[in-house]
Amino acid sequence: MKKKILFLIIPAFIYADGLQSLLEFATSNNKIVASNALTQEARKSEVESAQSAYYPTIDVGAFYKRDDDATPFQAGNTYSAYAKIGVDIYDGGRKSNTIKQNKAVLESSKYDSSAYKKSLQLQITQDFYNIKSAKSTLNALQETDKQLFASLERIKKFYAVGSATNDDVERLKAAYSNNIYKISSMEYQILSLRKLLSIKVGKKIDTLDDSSIKIPQEIQKELSDSILSLQANASSLTFTADSLNANYYPQLRLEDTYSVYDYGRENSITPSTLDNQNVLMLTLNMRLYDNGTISKKTKAILIQKDALSKKIEQLKDEQNINVELSLLKIETVKAQIQSSKSSLTSSKSAFETVSEKYEAGLVDYVTYLDALSIKTVAKAQYETALNNLQIAYASYYYNTNKNIKDFIK
Fold this sequence. Notes:
- This protein is α+β, with helices and mostly antiparallel strands.
- The chain is built from eight helices and six strands; from the N terminus they run H-E-H-H-E-E-H-H-E-H-E-E-H-H.
- Helices cover about 65% and strands about 15% of the residues.
- It has a four-stranded antiparallel β-sheet, with no helix packed on it. It has a two-stranded parallel sheet with strand order 1-4.
- It is elongated, with a radius of gyration of 38 Å.
């Protein structure tokens, strides 16, 4: 029998998930994390593509031409194949700025990915401890359920011998049924939270292990990844504008083309025709007038950059406020823990006294139910306050742009 009980208990420990393991699993298996990783790969390929633009280009081609009537100076059929190599000698800085722009976009995507991971860690941490709090409330309600059931059975016996009224029995039944309703609601809430947590983590969640977060000490605030992402985007817009302005600079390109020819349906008087030809061409191009098209596009891009700068300033102010509020939240929750702990101690003592008097018939069921309710609420509040402190620690680490998983005991 002992072996059977042990067999049933072991799986709960084997499959219990701690906060650390949940965060590590989520950062590797969450679908949006995977999506962000693919976006980074795409941005990296764009950088490599822009860098390849510095290499010479090689083109090959061929054509066939047929004239219905051959002339003394042109054969009826002409066949040709060619190979052309070209290189941009100077482009006004367009390629270099395109590379810088793509690198800035890649950097922005990396910060976006990091920002999501840190946000995901905070969400998972909040869900983790909210489930813990809900579980504590459920345990308190289940304990109340046992006490109400025992009291109901006791009052039924008193009613059977005429020592209690039907009203006493019905009121206790109502309290017992109401507590069952609360238990059912709490069980659904826990199930819902667990399902939502499973989606974020990327696997089914059954049992949660105990975990705690380190108390913040001498934490240096860093700019959030969201701000860093916007800064990188602003830089990319600057390089985009510079790339457009390159059209106003001279564009110098060198090309060498080698062609071979063959002919058919030649007229007897057609002179000897060209068999091959090599052409070296140096091209200079410069935009002199476009009615301000490029300059207007550049201006629009720079306005977008200014808009991002304003947004960055706002986010910096918000981050500073959030850090201050996080510290204030920690102190507030600590005070709540002390008050709820005192309330729990008092309510336990009061309930024990009232319970003894109730069993002795010195107080009525109303006083008993009030004492029981106060004790249940106090116990749930104390456990919730303890879990809220862990969430407050996590929020502080998040607002200082740290990875929460690095601060779990």
